[in-house]
Design brief:
By secondary structure, the chain is α/β, with parallel strands linked by helices. The protein has helices at about 15, 35-45, 65-75, 110-115, 120, 140-145, 150-155, 160-165, 165-175, 180-195, 210-220, 260-265, 270-280, 290-310, 310-320, 350-355, 360-370; strands spanning about 20-25, 50-55, 80-85, 135-140, 200-205, 230, 335-340, 345, 375, 380, 385, 395-400, 405-410.
């Protein structure tokens, strides 16, 4: 993992600097607290205001989204104030960063529905209880009241050329794809959030450097000290090759049940597992097990514990082992079968026939009647048993014979 900042910060700042990609501005040899974050942290005159914005463009947060939230917690633990901004206004525009086409604009109702569970999803990570350690703000608080005069003032702080220097805009412009004027407002409004909350540090992924830098510029424009930007790596998904994304199906959701979370993490490729430990756990990297399977199991147990508790994590681990009892494998060896293409209500013989475990529904019927089919280790013999919805089957394992298994997923 690339780290462009001091590799050995003072011990009291190790948690803050763990896994970061970049801090800017950063002049490691400077004693100026406006140019050196370690100096600013060491100054200790007041708690820093550390900003993280999350746009509720979807209903579910995944582990990739959790990385800056974890860093926010590290600042809380160091005595600083976390300012978590729910971008209920900016989500209606949609961050154009990394997008090859304009985002669909969300309605106010869409955004409210998506935002409803966000705080509950990050609750296991952040300190909600210590007074003065967390502010939760919604940026509609200040953005919805911006009049045309203030909007024109924001627009006047940047040129079209500066906007087109933003990677996604530049690519689309060169290709002749449309870049809409409302998209130019997004980095300005996200930057204005930094003015509104008077942030000292803003957290974000490496793809957010442009937006964070706009916040620095706007703070200067409005007579405030410019914030530091602290950038974190983008987490590769469970496939080990592409950024974690719901659309690619390579994600681990914070709302995943313990067994699903454990089973996904137990499959993380060894090539990226060190990054997962560094970004998603506090465990010392030099103490990780040498055996790759042991590393996978430790990662799965540790992350599942963070979101579901010690007991549930160990139960998930045991359940993962029990899924394929007698095969000598772990849950990582069980292929998944998506129920998305199954029409419900569905009879058991049709369901088993739809999986790769049987060649047809008629074969599935014969196997069930012959006692060769188990559902979660319990033998099933009625081929016409009916299931009203997929919710009755999620994470259950279908077994045909001694060596054919499939775990049912959404």
């Amino acid at each position: 993992m690339t780290q462009t900042n001091p590799s050995s910060p003072p011990a009291q700042f190790e948690a803050i600097y763990r896994g970061i990609s970049e801090v800017f501005p950063d002049q490691p040899n400077s004693s100026d607290p406006e140019q050196n974050l370690i100096q600013r942290l060491s100054k200790g005159d007041r708690p820093l205001r550390v900003k993280l914005g999350i746009d509720p463009t979807g209903a579910e947060i995944h582990l990739g989204h959790s990385i800056p939230v974890r860093k926010l917690r590290a600042f809380q633990d160091a005595g600083h104030t976390a300012v978590l901004i729910i971008g209920d206004f900016t989500a209606r525009i949609g961050d154009p960063t990394g997008k090859s086409e304009v985002r669909r604009q969300l309605s106010e109702a869409d955004v409210k529905a998506n935002a409803k569970t966000y705080l509950e999803q990050v609750r296991p990570i952040l300190d909600f209880d210590t007074p003065g350690r967390l502010e939760v703000r919604y940026n509609s608080e200040w953005l919805s009241s911006l009049d045309l005069g203030k909007t024109l003032e924001l627009l006047a702080t940047m040129t079209v050329g500066q906007m087109l220097a933003k990677e996604g805009f530049a690519e689309r412009y060169v290709k002749g794809d449309p870049v809409f004027l409302h998209e130019f407002l997004y980095p300005l409004m996200q930057g204005y959030d930094s003015v509104a909350v008077q942030s000292d540090v803003e957290l974000g992924g490496t793809d957010q450097k442009f937006n964070i830098a706009v916040g620095r510029d706007l703070q200067r424009h409005f007579g405030l000290p410019p914030q530091f930007g602290l950038l974190l790596p983008l987490l590769l998904g469970t496939d080990g090759s592409q950024k974690m994304s719901k659309s690619l199906g390579n994600y681990v959701g914070l709302q995943d049940n313990p067994l699903t979370m454990y089973s996904k993490l137990e499959k993380i490729p060894d090539a990226i597992i060190r990054d997962y430990f560094e970004l998603l756990t506090p465990l010392a990297l030099e103490t990780l097990p040498e055996n790759p399977r042991d590393r996978q199991k430790l990662l799965a147990l540790e992350v599942t514990r963070q979101f579901h508790g010690e007991a549930a994590a160990h139960q998930a681990q045991q359940a993962a082992i029990n899924l394929v009892q007698g095969t000598g494998e772990s849950a990582a060896g069980v292929p998944e079968f998506s129920l998305a293409g199954v029409n419900f209500p569905a009879k058991l013989f049709y369901l088993v026939g739809a999986t790769p475990l049987c060649a047809s529904s008629s074969e599935a019927r014969r196997q069930i009647q012959g006692g060769a089919v188990k559902l979660d280790n319990a033998r099933v013999t009625d081929p016409d048993q009916e299931f009203a919805s997929p919710n009755e089957l999620i994470d259950k394992v279908v077994q045909v014979g001694k060596k054919r298994f499939a775990r049912l997923v959404p």
